Amino acid sequence: MAILNRTPISVVVADKSSLVRAGLQGLLDEDERFELVGIAENGEQFLTLVDQQPFQVGIVGWVMPGIGGRGLLDSLRDRPNAPRVVIYTGDPSTDVPRQVMRLGGAGFCSKSEPPSQLLDTVARVATGQMIFPFVDVRGLHNCPLSMLTPRERELLAALSEGDSNAQLASRFEISIQTVKFHLKNVYEKLGIGNRAQAVALYISENS
């Protein structure tokens, strides 16, 4: 019986880590099911590739400089023929898969899982399936800010008022280094890359 040659699944990788990008390139190049057609360091580069050439699946990090996973998914929602996106992250928050599903992502895979699971997830997503760990759908439409601690929400509210890091430190009687630590956690939990995106999300969720 003749074996039919299937067209490889076209994939673009976007991740802030050069090691992760190189590792994924090696995995995809070694698997004949896939064809790696582009690599991006952040969401902006990924969206540029979307405009330049059609491809089927994106493997995307959740936290990236500039446009992160959340912003990228939001940008793709209104684009015709947008690629399916699998979020691949080491973020331990159990709420991230729920956010990905709510934003229209096609799949989620943790970096703690074996690489074979990521490849199988991409292959199944390319066929039209949605692949996620267990997600409590009762909270699917919850405000994404709900995953923040009370202090993080207070800092974000003050940030939306235009406070600088020094002003935040003075207001909450903490060091500037502690402010930076809290804001880094906020950005990572929300899948965003900077304070402008954090403020925009806060305003959109409270308007």
Structure description:
This protein is of the alpha/beta class and 207 residues long. It folds into two domains: 9-139, Rossmann fold (3-Layer(aba) Sandwich); 144-205, Arc Repressor Mutant, subunit A (Orthogonal Bundle), CATH 1.10.10. The chain contains nine helices and five strands; from the N terminus they run βαβαβαβαβααααα. The chain has a five-stranded parallel beta sheet, sandwiched between helices. The termini are far apart.
Briefly characterize the structure.
The chain has 207 residues and is an alpha/beta fold. The protein has helices at residues 18-30, 43-52, 69-76, 96-102, 115-126, 150-160, 165-172, 176-190, 195-205, and strands spanning 9-14, 34-40, 57-60, 84-89, 107-110.
- The overall number of domains is 2
| Oligomer designation | single chain
| Name of the CATH superfamily of the largest domain | Response regulator
Shape field: elongated
Distance between the termini: 62 Å
SS field, number of helical segments: 9
The average pLDDT value, as a whole number, equals 86
Strand order of the largest sheet: 2-1-3-4-5
State the name of the first-level CATH class of the largest domain: Alpha Beta
Helix/sheet category = alpha/beta
**What is the string of SSEs from the N terminus onward?**
EHEHEHEHEHHHHH
